[in-house]
Design goal:
The protein has 495 residues and is mostly helical. Helix content is 72%, strand content 0%. The relative contact order is 0.07. InterPro entries: TPR-like_helical_dom_sf (IPR011990), TPR_rpt (IPR019734). It comes from Erythrobacter sanguineus.
């Protein structure tokens, strides 16, 4: 796969150079593929798909076994098997099924789309784009490919290209609900809340409680000042996804903006006091304490919120609403018993050897126990399926604990290259470059993070002031230092 950085070109050029422009994903094949559709197979796949949508995975599996018996070399069958296995938590065999589909149909559009989605989850937006290109070259009328391609371009920050992809989707599937939804996403990102609301309502997806649409509905409500409505929508999503810290933060923000400080303190003060709480959550709860006149509680949280970030992420934090086995493992870790946590993790891996999520839990337990090589081995399994920012952070800690700083630095640069709108990752990379005296790239990364909305972070602003000073720009240095000072609440900090 070739390196093909798009906008913002300067940023990506700098990051790809740091990462060695090394790509972890394979290149898409270019062989054409064509096949006749068997009506019996089409029926089985259609019914199996409906069963999967309803959660009847066992029945869907029985139908797909029947389809595979009829045509074991049909790539459509293997794509459906990959989807089923992924839904069932058998992530590693889902990858095997997707590979089998591509072997049988190197130019088969659904198989290429499946690989594009898997590469996006495991390696980032940049690596997935050539696979989307290949899927669309194989079948330019594939509405699913255009919708996912448009979403990926938007998440990668290429909003103009996203708009062109949405227009193409509208040409080939004008009745597709995703046309209006994706247009609503673009309008919301462009600050056009009224238009975004209208387009979202036309899509009908929020009314059907599609999670992404419900989240967009909440974000639009926040922009329009409808804080209670936003909180209601976010409450529903947070109940469905109890481990999603970002949703929890948005919910707290909506409650605070709606003047519900007492509720914020009652429900989230304990969460904000935990070691794994984000600085943003700590700041929000601190502001609630402050408005209620509890300056002492506010001071303690604000001191944490504005302190330099720790180098070691908290692993195996306890969360409400998790499955019992997972909760027990996390409880062992919280009780200071890493040996028991590791034993529980080994038991879970024996029960679910094909799950990337369980592999990640095992890696966390190993990292907590000080066994960095075992943690890296487990994280590598999860990274074949998904590579979220938290996983990258934990793998970096494991690499550094073994003395392999170069591997940690390269992993971080690759993450930013694949996900260049991830503000915490941009800041982490900039901090490392600043420590090495690479102030030009440090400034470039921090300016990008500020443009994305990261300018409320005092640590970022202090580092940007330092970079400006090192580059001989005293005026900009003073301006960034002043902005950082404006954010800091010195009167509330415990001394």
């Amino acid at each position: 796969m070739t390196c093909r950085p798009r906008r913002p070109a300067a940023l990506l050029a700098a990051v790809l150079l740091l990462a060695g422009c090394a790509q972890a994903a394979d290149s898409p094949p270019h062989a054409p593929d064509a096949g006749a559709e068997n009506p019996d197979i089409a029926r089985l796949l259609r019914v199996a798909g409906a069963m999967m949508a309803d959660g009847s995975l066992a029945e869907a599996g029985r139908l797909l076994d029947e389809a595979r018996a009829l045509e074991p070399d049909n790539p459509d069958v293997w794509v459906a098997i990959a989807r089923l296995r992924f839904r069932g938590g058998e992530h590693l065999t889902a990858l095997d099924a997707a590979n089998r589909a591509l072997e049988l149909g190197p130019g088969h559009a659904p198989a290429l789309l499946m690989r594009a989605l898997m590469v996006r989850d495991a390696h980032g937006f940049a690596d997935s784009l050539p696979w989307f290109d290949a899927a669309l070259a194989a079948d330019s009328s594939n509405a699913d490919a255009w919708a996912e391609y448009a979403a990926t371009l938007g998440d990668f920050g290429y909003h103009g290209e996203m708009l062109r992809a949405v227009r193409k989707l509208a040409e080939i599937a004008p009745a597709d609900r995703r046309v209006f939804f994706l247009q609503a996403v673009l309008a919301q990102r462009g600050g056009k809340a009224v238009l975004a609301r209208s387009l979202l309502e036309r899509s009908g997806m929020a009314a059907r409680e599609v999670p992404a649409a419900v989240l967009l509905d909440a974000l639009i409500s926040l922009e329009q000042g409808n804080h209670d409505s936003a909180a209601e929508r976010l409450e529903m999503l947070a109940a469905r996804q109890p481990a999603n810290a970002r949703l929890r933060e948005l919910l707290v923000r909506a409650l605070l903006l709606g003047g519900r400080e007492t509720e914020v303190v009652e429900r989230f003060a304990a969460d904000a006091a935990r070691p794994e709480a984000s600085p943003y959550l700590a700041m929000l709860v601190a502001r609630a304490h402050e408005r209620l006149g509890d300056r002492a509680s506010a001071a303690a949280l604000l001191e944490r919120a504005y302190a330099p970030p720790g180098s070691t992420p908290v692993v195996l934090a306890q969360r409400a609403g998790l499955p019992q086995a997972t909760s027990d493992l996390r409880a062992s870790a919280a009780a200071g018993n890493p040996g028991a946590a590791q034993a529980r993790a080994k038991g879970l891996r024996a029960r679910f050897p094909l799950s990337g999520d369980i592999a990640q839990l095992a890696g966390d337990a190993a990292l907590l126990s000080g066994d960095a090589p075992a943690a890296l081995e487990a994280y590598a399994i999860m990274a074949r399926v998904r590579r979220p920012w938290l996983l990258t952070r934990k793998a970096m800690v494991a690499y550094r604990s073994t003395g392999d700083d170069a591997a940690a630095d390269t992993l971080l640069a690759r993450h930013v290259a694949g996900e260049p709108e991830n503000i915490p990752a941009l800041i982490a990379l900039a901090q490392g470059l600043g420590q090495r005296g690479d102030w030009e790239r440090t400034a470039l990364l921090l300016d990008h993070a500020i443009a994305l909305g990261g300018g409320h972070d005092p640590g970022l602003l202090h580092l940007r002031a330092k970079a400006a000073r090192a580059l001989g720009n005293s005026d900009r240095s003073e301006r960034f230092a002043a902005l950082a000072a404006d954010l800091a609440p010195p009167a509330l900090i415990v001394r």
